[in-house]
């Protein structure tokens, strides 16, 4: 497939002869203001066009014949086939790339080998922003990339969508200035996500491997967002620079065929221990390690949302991590189980907490079950003197509100600091 089909006049063997007879300027009459611009400015303007449209400018005039080859972006959208992309990269000059974007509906023309070749090409051109979005009407369809090893000294931002990523470790240690990694609707089959330079990590609607817990080893992270993911909760290694964290896992747990980290037959802090219980099987196999809180304890702003029976976070309580920087905290109703154990834990271990929000479920109205095991702090304590705002978001007439207010007041929160006015009225 040719990159562009130029009009070929009768008796001519190709578009090139047509271009040879064209004037240096595309203007037929009058002042050619675009033609007066330097080549670098024209390339900059072309960098905003999809690559096919950029290539088509070669028919405008002899001067434009090769300008598209050195445009600092490759932007591939929707209808382009793999043959076009490969031809484009073969004919393009090896000049540095600011951005490489491939957004297309999943089809048989793209193979993992093609995509890996395109990624290697982008890396060889010192790409700084790399985006690979494979869309599909079927949200479960994903393009499998078995080997995601990138060696790129200039890459700063990396975006993936609808990919199936494997290969043991997602190792980005050979991308020394990579600062942002975002994965949307991806299947992640990796033992570890590794990057020393990464500052922001986002996984949204991703599926983490259900057979081995992924370790996230990104010590320079300042922002972490794990949103609406399913599967085994990742193991977060120490993140001493972390400022903001949003962690939401398996909120719609009751609709899953497999419950992963939700043990419905065990207590609040320990699982049932049965061999056929998936969460307990993984916990026993992994040993006694801190999964979440070790990585989150340095955050200044923390949102932690999970299903009520998710046991991973509560199992981490025994490590007694102190959230010494935490000023803003948002929790869902999991913190109310076992006699307010999660809520008490964070209030007890957040000495400078200023703002607390408790988000109750919109679809459940039931009193707190006090038959669960209790966390039982050994001594009475008062909450941080900095805690000025407590907001409880709830459904109208929720029976749990009175209990929550009473426990907060008993821990030293002034009633005037508790805001229950944001009711959700269905």
From TrEMBL:
Q: Which domain of life is it from?
A: Eukaryota
> Which Pfam family name is an example for this entry?
F-box
Record's protein name: F-box domain-containing protein
Gene3D superfamilies given in the database record: 1.20.1280.50, Ribonuclease Inhibitor
PANTHER family documented for this protein? F-BOX DOMAIN-CONTAINING PROTEIN, OS11G0201299 PROTEIN
Where in the numbering of this chain does the F-box domain appear? 37-72
Per the database record, which ranges form the F-box/LRR-repeat protein 15/At3g58940/PEG3-like LRR domain? 116-246
SUPFAM superfamilies from the xrefs? Answer: F-box domain, RNI-like
- Which organism was this protein described from? Lolium multiflorum
Write down the InterPro entries for this protein, in alphabetical order. Answer: F-box-like_dom_sf, F-box_AtFBL13-like, F-box_dom, F-box_SCFL_complex_component, LRR_dom_sf, LRR_FXL15/At3g58940/PEG3-like
